[in-house]
Specification:
The protein contains 13 helices and 5 strands. The chain is α/β, with parallel strands linked by helices. It has a 5-stranded parallel β-sheet with strand order 2-3-1-4-5, sandwiched between helices. The radius of gyration is 20 Å and the shape is globular.
Length: 258
């Protein structure tokens, strides 16, 4: 993916990674642009707090998996943004078809706060639809626009329910910001339900009986699951009515405020 985004052969990229190839400034800029990092960062040998970060990482590696979420929650409470302010914004994450828009709009109406579809805000900021953004700027360009739009939405809304695109978890900086500034809920469902709901929305590009599409969806869910689990709450919507899922979501939000 990096080779494609930077317009360089995989072989040349591998040589550069091994320190066996020469790189021009132009090529280096293409690579760092694809990675969405400043060009100066590739020349940085160490970070000021690298030793402390390594020590913290080693401690976290020894924490049992079942307790890891509790430890992360404590760190957020201790060192994150003011918890009361964070819980004023409720961010719903998960793949398309999970029910983020339906549940998010109902929750916002119930709480009498704005409902924000981040994808719509991205289209508004870019002046074009998502398909055109991907066509013109690719995945990397889209992620840059997504981050800038999220920054704006968080500045403008102290209280809101925000529906976020499922791929945001793959962008560490953007996702970390979301977790720090919002009470985050992973809206999840079985792959078959994701697919059937997308088709019900009128998107027939991925048909429910398309075995290859289902396998792709399962792989995406499997790869992203550890990232989605960093959310404050997980809400399973499979085999439930909208009302049942909404009541569970409302209860989760109310419990977080106690």
């Amino acid at each position: 993916m990096l080779a494609h985004e930077a317009d360089v052969s995989e072989r040349h990229l591998a040589q550069l990674e091994l320190g066996e190839g020469n790189v021009s400034i132009v090529l280096l800029r293409r690579i760092t642009t694809a990675l969405n990092i400043p060009i100066a960062e590739v020349f940085t040998t160490s970070k000021p707090n690298a030793e402390a970060e390594d020590a913290l990482r080693r401690v976290l590696e020894r924490v049992p998996g079942a307790q890891l979420e509790t430890v992360v929650a404590r760190l957020r409470r201790e060192f994150g943004e003011n918890d009361l302010a964070r819980r004023g914004r409720i961010a719903l994450i998960g793949l398309r078809g999970a029910g983020k828009s339906t549940l998010g709009s109902k929750l916002a109406e119930d709480l009498e706060i704005p409902f924000v579809e981040l994808d719509q805000e991205i289209e508004k900021d870019a002046g074009m639809d998502l398909a055109e953004i991907f066509s013109l700027y690719g995945q990397t360009g889209y992620r840059r626009i997504e981050k800038k739009t999220l920054d704006r939405v968080l500045r403008e809304h102290a209280r809101a329910v925000i529906s976020i695109g499922g791929g945001v978890v793959s962008e560490k900086e953007t996702y970390d910001q979301l977790l720090a500034k919002c009470f985050t809920v992973w809206i999840k469902a079985h792959p078959e339900e994701h697919m059937s709901r997308v088709v019900a929305q009128g998107d027939f590009r991925a048909m429910a009986d398309n075995t290859e599409a289902m396998e792709d969806l399962r792989r995406i869910l499997e790869a992203r699951e550890p990232l989605y689990r960093r959310a404050d709450v997980q809400l399973e919507t499979s085999r439930e009515t909208v009302l049942q899922s909404f009541l569970k979501l409302k209860q989760a939000v109310q419990s977080s405020e106690k």
